[in-house]
Amino acid sequence: WRSRSPALRIAVAAAALLAISAEALASRAYLTRWKDSETLYKYILSLAPNSAETLNNLGIALADLDRLEEAVQQFHKAIEFKPGFQPAHFNLGKALVKLGQFNEALGELRIAVEMNPRDSAALDYLGYAALLVGRFDEAETAFKQALDRAPDNPDTLNNYGSLLVKRGNCREAVNKFRRAVQLDSANLQPYKALAWILATHPDPSLRNGADAVNFAEQADALTQHRDAGVLDALAAAYAEAGKFDRAVQVGHRAMNIAASDGSQNRAAQIQQRVARYEQKKPVRDGSLAGGTAG
Questions:
Q1: Looking at residues 104-130, what average pLDDT do you find?
Q2: Backbone angles phi, psi at 20, to 5 degrees
């Protein structure tokens, strides 16, 4: 959510309270009653109920707690009291994406970008929302503009890489994913994407078993060896590197985790791949060679 950590938002809100009533906040005991940003912003609203900024911040605090429907209500109120308030449109769009209301989200994010075309975060999220609904041309335009403004944003690089995979341009996607993990070593998705592409792409010039294993093992460490999708990619990477016994072992772990999670279709797909590893055959994902217009 936009721009501030919970601790910083509490500090900013505390400053606002000081401005509202310096005498009332003179004692240390009074300040310590505010245990979280939601409580603090609600108190500020009791003093200034038409504050769009505070309504927006309360919405962010609720979204941080995954109380998205309540967050949406606060963002709508902020826009009602302050039409054209760009941060509220942006945060509303983000919340709507998380709620799966993609068309409504796109509308809000387009407004946010129109109000501030230099906002790389809004551009990135507009691209992400467009990607989710298959509006690939709009997504690519947004990602390119976001990277023009913030070229080293790992989230945008990862999202753009995901779009390039959808469009069949895995070579450029790999470049974006590699840069993303250089900038943010704790970001799981580009590690996982790199492992799968480098292990399974039909084009041998794109495959690299050693790199696939490296990226997959880092993803496996990030997920504490408990993610079926990551283990599936790790098994494929081992197979591409010629380590078929390890591929079988890890593939079985992935299959068991998927089954225990209730993902029977995924478990069945992994089982088919494990059967290939048992025959000393790596996996090739033909879908990576295609592309989708949009």
A1: 98
A2: -70, -45
Burial 155-194 (b: 16+ CB within 10 A, else e): bbbbbbbbbbbbbeebeebbebbbbbbeebeebbbbbbbb
C-alpha span between 208 and 196 (Å, rounded): 10
Task: Give the confidence band of 54 by pLDDT, cuts at 50, 70, 90.
Answer: confident
Other beta carbons within 10 angstroms of residue 281's beta carbon come to: 13
Flag whether pLDDT at 13 surpasses 70: no
Question: CA-to-CA distance for 59 and 68, rounded, in angstroms?
Answer: 8
pTM over 0.85: no
pLDDT number for residue 291: 64
Q: In this predicted model, what pLDDT tens digit does every residue of 206-238 receive, in sequence order?
A: 999 999 999 999 999 999 999 999 999 999 999
At residue 61, the pLDDT reads 87
Q: Tell me the DSSP string of 14-58.
A: HHHHHHH-TTTT-SHHHHTT--SHHHHHHHHHHH-TT-HHHHHHH
Please report, for residues 37, 143, 188, 234, 235, the alpha-carbon distance to residue 202 in angstroms, rounded to integers and kept in the order given. Answer: 51, 27, 24, 17, 17
> How far from 101 is each of 66, 104, 105, 107, 191, CA to CA, in Å?
15, 6, 6, 10, 28
- The CA distance from 118 to 139, in Å, is 16
DSSP codes, 159-223: HHHHHHHHTT-HHHHHHHHHHHHHH-TT-HHHHHHHHHHHHH-S-TTT--HHHHHHHHHHHHHHT
> Tens digits of per-residue pLDDT, 183-195?
999 999 999 999 9
